[in-house]
Amino acid sequence: MLVFDKINVSIAGVHVLRNVSFDLPAGSTCALVGHNGAGKTTTVRTIMGFTTSRGVIRLAGEDISPVEPHRRPALGIGYAPEDRRLFSAFTVEENLLLPARVAKLSKDETARRLERAYWVMPELKELAGRPAGSVSGGQGKMVALGRALMLGTRLVILDEPFQGLAPVLAQRYAEALGRLRANDKDITLLITESNPKLVAAFADITLTIERGEIQ
Predict the structure, then answer these.
(1) How far is the CA of 45 from the CAs of 13, 18, 173, in angstroms?
(2) What is the pLDDT of residues 52-96, one digit of tens each?
């Protein structure tokens, strides 16, 4: 499903990713683990086209390296960044709907995907009418996941989703990922995490990155 073939990325003259290669089959759940600064976020930002990279990235056999960043979500990629990046003046539901509107999905398809997000995370339906700026940091992580699910039909990327979550919310988040996996066995999940223990229970592939290299 997702193939990295000798990806190299330099930022401000610093070589951040060094010949990173891996192959994630469709339906797999991969944990990309490493210390802060190891290259995890740069890896996922490279998938989204937010860095200048050398090498080849393939999604379902298609080389997406030349695809512009704003066109990559339409390939079926959902992305929940570490900092959530919600529109605080919009309601939770408006934040969820925004990617579908940008992608110009039909009304029926939008409704279907919204219902899927609410099924995976019932808490979001309860928060739907609240301004996104009023939710807690942990709830914001769930909103970001729900938003990623609106476009993530092939690949969902979650950057440090458990960081800063209270134990109760971390458990709910893990349960939501379990429901997503049970409902859609073909979707590929890529989760970055500094603490491998938090993802060990549901990741079937673990990649360790250190100093920009897969170990």
Answers:
(1) 17, 15, 22
(2) 999 999 999 999 999 999 999 999 999 999 887 899 999 999 999
CATH number at residue 188: 3.40.50.300
Is the model's pTM score more than 0.90?
A: yes
Separation in Å, CA 79 to CA 19, 24, 69, 197:
23, 16, 12, 22
With b for 16 or more beta-carbon neighbours within 10 A and e for fewer, the 3-13 pattern comes to bbeebbbeeee
Taking 90 as the threshold, does the pLDDT of residue 50 lie above it? yes
Residue 40 counted as domain residue: yes
CB 188 within 8 A of CB 154: yes
The gap from C-alpha 183 to its chain's centroid, in whole angstroms, comes to 17
Bridge partners for 166 per DSSP: none
- Euclidean distance between CA atoms 43 and 64, whole angstroms: 14
User: Residue 205: which domain range?
Assistant: 25-49+74-214
